[in-house]
Amino acid sequence: MSTYDPAALECLAAIVEEGGFERAAQRLNVTQSAVSQRLRALEAQVGSVLIVRSRPLRPTSAGQLLLKHTKQLRLLRADLERDLQELAPSAPGGSREDERISIAINADSIATWAMGALHDLVRERLPLEIIVDDQDFTQEWLRSGQVLGCVTTLKQALRGCRMVPLGAMHYVAVASAEFASRQLPQGLTPHNFREVSFLSFNRKDDMAAEFVARAFGLKRVALHHLFVPSTEAQMRAVDAGWAVGVVPELLVRGRLADGSFVDLAPGCSLPIQLYWHCWNLESELLDALTAALTSTAADTLVQP
């Protein structure tokens, strides 16, 4: 089996993660010519093109395999670093910027429970990179080898990965008290939901439509959307009376209690089951990530 130059592998990863040769060179502190040379040498060794020179750049199938291998090597080095720190606590950490441990998490989990789960690991100087995507699509980052784990709504584990149920996050439809009084004095009904706007992250986000369909027993619904690509910004948008927000109940519990937000469909909620997927490798770091996320989720999310 071929042995691949770690510097060339990290060069490939930097090109993909930074989205170009120039930024990869800046991150690796080498010239852009050196980045190109390392990539060409790696492609020659593999016998295949590894990067599609498109906009944005993307790895080929062979490039994805090597990218996953590179991140697995990072994980091994991070495990070694943790073990060495335990043997010699006063020794300086050896983690580098280009050896980040990447995981994909949906924005609502980050805004509610996931940051607390990761707190202790980050305090231990874990070189963490959190990639944000819709919970229905985070598994694609794991599939492509760009992250070592993800929080997703998909239950089926990928080949070579393991899956742990986390629990359900319940979503409710809310509006500011002023918006609700002015536009929805009777709350949401099957007859008025088309008269107001709903907040969504982007065009992939179908949470609001799924909530309305479930609440009123409809197969398909068409809503008027305002796209606001941030959980925190959506909260501000609801507060400002822009639209109806279908948001985690965890996030608005206090606002509902003080009356500044109104539950527009009392008794209706949309449970979204979440799962943690990660590579099926023997790794203390992966075990620690899994334990941290599942423990916090058990205390925060609704369990079956």
From TrEMBL:
<dbReference type="InterPro" id="IPR050176">
    <property type="entry name" value="LTTR"/>
</dbReference>
<protein>
    <submittedName>
        <fullName>HTH-type transcriptional regulator ArgP</fullName>
    </submittedName>
</protein>
<dbReference type="InterPro" id="IPR017685">
    <property type="entry name" value="ArgP"/>
</dbReference>
<keyword id="KW-0238">DNA-binding</keyword>
<feature type="domain" description="HTH lysR-type">
    <location>
        <begin position="4"/>
        <end position="60"/>
    </location>
</feature>
<keyword id="KW-0804">Transcription</keyword>
<keyword id="KW-0805">Transcription regulation</keyword>
<dbReference type="Pfam" id="PF00126">
    <property type="entry name" value="HTH_1"/>
</dbReference>
<dbReference type="InterPro" id="IPR036390">
    <property type="entry name" value="WH_DNA-bd_sf"/>
</dbReference>
<dbReference type="InterPro" id="IPR005119">
    <property type="entry name" value="LysR_subst-bd"/>
</dbReference>
<comment type="similarity">
    <text>Belongs to the LysR transcriptional regulatory family.</text>
</comment>
<dbReference type="InterPro" id="IPR000847">
    <property type="entry name" value="LysR_HTH_N"/>
</dbReference>
<dbReference type="InterPro" id="IPR036388">
    <property type="entry name" value="WH-like_DNA-bd_sf"/>
</dbReference>
<dbReference type="Pfam" id="PF03466">
    <property type="entry name" value="LysR_substrate"/>
</dbReference>
